[in-house]
Every structure is written in C-alpha cells, then in structure tokens.
Amino acid sequence: MNIDSVGFVMSAGGVPECPPGARAEIAMSGRSNVGKSSLLNSLLGHKRLAKVSNTPGKTQRLNYFLVNDQFHVVDLPGYGYARAPGSARNQWGQMMQGYLRTRRQLVAVIQLVDSRHAPSREDHEMVRWLRDEQMPFCLVATKIDKLGQSKRQSALRAITGALELPETQPLVPYSSHTGEGRGALLAWIEHALVTVAGS
Ligand code: GTP
Ligand code: MG
C-alpha cells in the first residue's frame, strides 16, 4: 500500500464525537510512551502529524487521521499512565471501553508493545480483550532499533510467549527512527481493509 494523502481530521472526546459515516478505521493502542504517535508519523510519512513527547499521557483524546481519502487511523490515548489522577484514568477507561465496544467502523487494531520490556498487566488485558472479541489485531514491537541483532529474536519470542499468542499471530518489529517494519505494517493494514471490504 502506498500512502498518497494523509491529513488530521479531528480529535474526539468520546464515541458520540467520532466522525459520522461508514469509513473503516484502524486504531492504534498501547501503553503511554510506547511510541504510538511516533509510529503513526513514521507509518504515514509525516514528521509532525501526531504529537510526540517524552511526557507520558500526551495523547488524551481519540485523534482521527484520514488516509488516501479511504480509511481512518485513530491514535488512541495510552493506558497505564500511573501519574494520571484517578478521575482522569476513570474517564479514560470509560472512553476507551465505549470506543472499543461500540464503534462499528473499527475493523482492526494495531497493538503496540515495547520490544525491550515484558508486557505490562494492561498489555495482557488489552490482548486478552482483543482475542475475546475476535478483533483482528497486529502486534507491533516498538523501538526495535534499541535492541541489538543478538537480542531481537529472544525479545520477540519472550513477548509472544508471555502473551500466549499463537504462531500465526501477526507480529511486526518496528522502528519509527529507521522505518523498519513500515512495509510489513502497511501490507497488514491493506489486508485488514480488503478483508472487511470483501465480507
Ligand atoms: P502517549 O501519547 O503519551 O500515549 O505516548 P506515545 O505512545 O504516543 O509515544 P510517543 O510516540 O510520543 O513516543 C514516546 C517516546 O519514545 C519519545 O521520546 C519518542 O522519541 C520515543 N520513541 C518512539 N518510537 C521510537 C522508536 O522507534 N525508536 C526509539 N529509539 N525511540 C522511539
Ligand atoms: Mg501519543
């Protein structure tokens, strides 16, 4: 898949504010600071489309981007931001649950985990939820540039092992700094969209 056009559409505070219409959407999920916004910029080929920050919790809303005049990519707020006040976390939980459960346009999720760390409790919960709901998802191991060649395979195996994922689970090692994994992830998105269009 080539990225011919991309633009920011809107930022929604919850499902009622999400764009109307039937366009399919792909959401990006992962804990805060895992590299969602960076991946989005790298994937879509724009340096400053989504805000990247060293401060966890930067993305607080559902940010919509239109790609190729065809489908939406949604940058979701990160989970597990320990320093967020209780009320904000609760609000976040409600918004995410509402979105993931009721948003009909959502066809697949890109689930990010940090390639250097064991999956967190929230990563486990999220992956379990995706499997229970039979939501198609691609697991992306981010910041792969930080791992040397010798550590990569064991790190990836540790992640899929910890999450108890089958061999067939799509898994893409990704670096937003080098662009590694971009082609594979775009191919997976294209496949996910075709599958929906054909069903
Ligand atoms: P929230 O919006 O807070 O949920 O964070 P996020 O998941 O959108 O993370 P973001 O893209 O803002 O990146 C967080 C930090 O990780 C930034 O300092 C990035 O520069 C860094 N980072 C992201 N992707 C990569 C990568 O592929 N390689 C390396 N080395 N650093 C990365
Ligand atoms: Mg972000």
Structure in words:
With 199 residues, the chain is an alpha/beta fold. The longest helix has 17 residues. Helices cover 35% and strands 21% of the residues. Strands 1-3-4-2-5-6-7 form a seven-stranded mixed β-sheet, with helices on both faces. It binds guanosine-5'-triphosphate (GTP) and magnesium ion. Guanosine-5'-triphosphate binds next to helix 1.
Q: How would you describe this structure in keywords?
A:
199 residues; alpha/beta; globular; binds guanosine-5'-triphosphate; single chain; 5 helices; binds magnesium ion; 35% helix
Order of helices and strands: EEHEEHEHEHEH
What is the makeup of the main sheet?
7 strands, mixed
Termini separation: 20 Å
Q: Could you tell me the radius of gyration in angstroms?
A: 16 Å
Helix content: 25-40%
Apparent shape: globular
The total count of strands amounts to: 7
What is the number of helices? 5
Ligands in the model, by name, code or SMILES, are: guanosine-5'-triphosphate, magnesium ion
Low-pLDDT stretches are: none
On the 0-100 scale, what is the average pLDDT? 88
Strand content: 15-25%
Q: Structural class from helices and strands?
A: alpha/beta
Strand order, largest beta sheet = 1-3-4-2-5-6-7
